[in-house]
Amino acid sequence: MSQKRTDYISWDRYFMGVALLSAMRSKDPNTQVGACIVNQKNRIVGIGYNGLPIGCSDDEFPWDVNDSFLESKYPYVVHSEPNAILNANASVEACVIYVTLFPCHECVKLIIQSGIKEIVYLSDKYNNTESDMAAKRMLEAADIKYRKIQPFRVEIKDGL
User: Fold this and answer.
1) Which residues are catalytic?
2) pTM score, two decimals?
């Protein structure tokens, strides 16, 4: 009798893998972020990545990071978290959001308002910035859990 495989990936790695794959859809030359929202039955209910709003051409708006606000990407790009919330095909109440980069304070407001109860993230490269401190302060006040998972590699073997 065959034994079951023991080298399968965890749910955390599986859903973070979906978030990483979603990030690859981003056309941002500097930062690609993906998000995956999962309900209590481990079913994906929403995915998103950072990009321009529907109807705004990727070729007509700037992707720069510079001092001129209107000539930078910042007023135009929708982050992965709100995209995942807006793209959800079911309620996100009590869900977990997997995101490749810890959410900014603006995204945290939307996460809290949407009813998501946990954030799992891969990178925290803006740790201790004012945006990060505000985000974490709101999460703690709203009793939203957040945790970082360790970076990982997935090996694709022949025959899969």
Assistant:
1) 81
2) 0.93
Q: Could you give the residue ranges of the DSSP H alpha helices within 59-129?
A: 80-87, 105-114
Q: At what angle do helices 11-23 and 80-87 cross, to 10 degrees?
A: 110
DSSP 1-70: -PPPPS-PPPHHHHHHHHHHHHHTT---SS---EEEEE-TTS-EEEEEESBPPTTS-TTTS----SS-GG
Of 48, 76, 44, 42, give the one whose Cα is nearest residue 61.
76
Cβ burial of 85 (10 Å; 0-12, 13-18, 19+) is buried
pLDDT in tens, 85-124: 999 999 999 999 999 999 999 999 999 999 999 999 999 9
Specify the 3-state DSSP secondary structure of 112: helix
